[in-house]
């Protein structure tokens, strides 16, 4: 935090994200790595594309450097196996196999002056997963 009375001149933040997209269990897996600086994505690796892509001049410079390094590229291209498929058994119980039973309530909605007639029953089903 700044000293008392001083204002921040800017906030600079780096964020990296590693994502695994699973389709039909581990049959089709996609690995995505994102590099973000100051809320702007500047570099990304997508296993479906097979190489880094830059989105800013700095990102293009990094993409060119990473794509020409065989050690980095081997690490990225095999991440589907050593990172995604390896961690699937750990995350599956919280994502794929997650089941939350519905909470059901039935209540009587009395007639109103704007909608005369008999009351209505309202059935609410909430807080369940998966949606299907």
How would you explain this protein's 3D organization?
With 132 residues, this protein is an alpha+beta fold. The chain has a domain of 81 residues: Class II Histocompatibility Antigen, M Beta Chain, Chain B, domain 1, CATH 3.10.320.10. It is built from 3 helices and 6 strands. It has a 4-stranded antiparallel β-sheet. A hairpin with a 2-residue loop joins strand 2 and strand 3. The longest helix is centred in the middle third of the chain and has 13 residues. The chain is flat, with a radius of gyration of 25 Å. The model has no long low-confidence stretch (mean pLDDT 88). This is MHC class II antigen. One of its GO terms (cellular component) is MHC class II protein complex. It comes from Geothlypis trichas (Common yellowthroat). It is a single-pass type I membrane protein. Its main location: membrane.
Keywords:
132 residues; alpha+beta; Class II Histocompatibility Antigen, M Beta Chain, Chain B, domain 1; four-stranded antiparallel β-sheet; two-stranded antiparallel sheet; 3 helices; 6 strands
């Amino acid at each position: 935090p700044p000293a008392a009375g001083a204002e921040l001149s800017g906030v600079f933040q780096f964020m990296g994200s590693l994502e695994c997209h699973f389709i039909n269990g581990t049959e089709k897996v996609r690995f995505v790595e994102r590099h973000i600086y100051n809320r702007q994505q500047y570099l990304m690796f997508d296993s479906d594309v097979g190489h880094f892509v830059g989105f800013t001049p700095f990102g293009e410079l990094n993409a060119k450097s990473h794509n020409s390094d065989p050690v980095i590229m081997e690490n990225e291209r095999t991440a589907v196996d050593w990172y995604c498929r390896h961690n699937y058994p750990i995350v599956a119980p919280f994502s794929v196999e997650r089941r939350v039973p519905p909470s059901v309530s039935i209540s009587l909605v009395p007639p109103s002056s704007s909608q005369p007639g008999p009351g209505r029953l309202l059935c609410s089903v909430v807080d369940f997963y998966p949606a299907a």
